[in-house]
Request: fold
Amino acid sequence: MEYRVLPHGGDKISVIGLGSAGLHSATDAEVERTIDEAVDAGVNHFDFIPSEAKPLAAMGRALHRHRADVHIQVHIGALYGGGAYAWTTDAKPAIAEFEQRLAAIGTDYADFGFIHCIDEDADLDRVMNGGIWDYAQARRADGTIRHLAFSTHSPHIARRLLATDVFDLAMFSLNPMYDYTDESEYGQGEVADRMALLREFERAGVGVSVMKPFAGGQLLDAAQSPFGRALTRTQCIQYALDKPGVVTVLPGVHGTADLHDLLAYFDATPEERDYSVLATCVPQSREARCVYCNHCQPCPAGLQIGLINKYYDLARVGDELAAEHYRNLARHAGECVGCGHCDRRCPFGVEQPARMREIAAYFGM
Reply:
């Protein structure tokens, strides 16, 4: 297992966590076995929000067994009163359901207490003024919520929530389909704005847990993919992990077979993780931007091209720490020899020698 550190609090989080949207199709025994095997493999981050109520009790039992070793996302606004998942901005049922979820795990705290699935201004206004916001703040103050978090598909809503400066984690939908096409209501915003948002998360020290990394499975099926070809789970996971601010990717699973498919990521070769095939799929009219994927490596001059671009983008929006990280690199943009090796390998059409000249001029090094 690989781990990343949550900027606020220093928690070590497994880069692959576990979503639970598909667990309603598994038996209780399979649900518990899936969680047990995930923890044994080093997975320590779990989202406690299945798409039906059926697996809640089994998930609660399994998570309780591993309570000291796992981080659990518990949402304020998810409902299961009718047996299927629903959501609300009404404080009374949202709070009652949140507390029932804690009771199901047999715990008195949530590692991450989520303001749940806010995509519209009106819904956020109801949360802010209708009791959920005050409840979440109070529970964070008394330790019932260790880290405050939110989930959204909207860059605009994410920015409104980031502006409150109270969050440690954001759950955001991230995959190539949402970034490069308009095929889904979940993929809101142009790719440049979505990338800018991820840099804003990183600058604010707010970690990102990725939902929908496979676009609900569409990217894994050539017949459903908007790109006309299938990507692998490994490619989609790597795509998400390469983005700024991301600490963990939470694919949904139906049972142990899906879990084993996810864990194969750690045995994958660099070639199997390579998603540069997207260069032949994404609209070429989109502005060429470095996404820090490092497909351009190795640089003949020894430059860490992805890091150089990342620190530059963050420094330009005022992140002095990123600027300092750039200055401390062993090699800087001004040492680019302009050989074009990176241009030939870049799946997103970035002309890096020109970019390196721009970065060198900015830093004056």
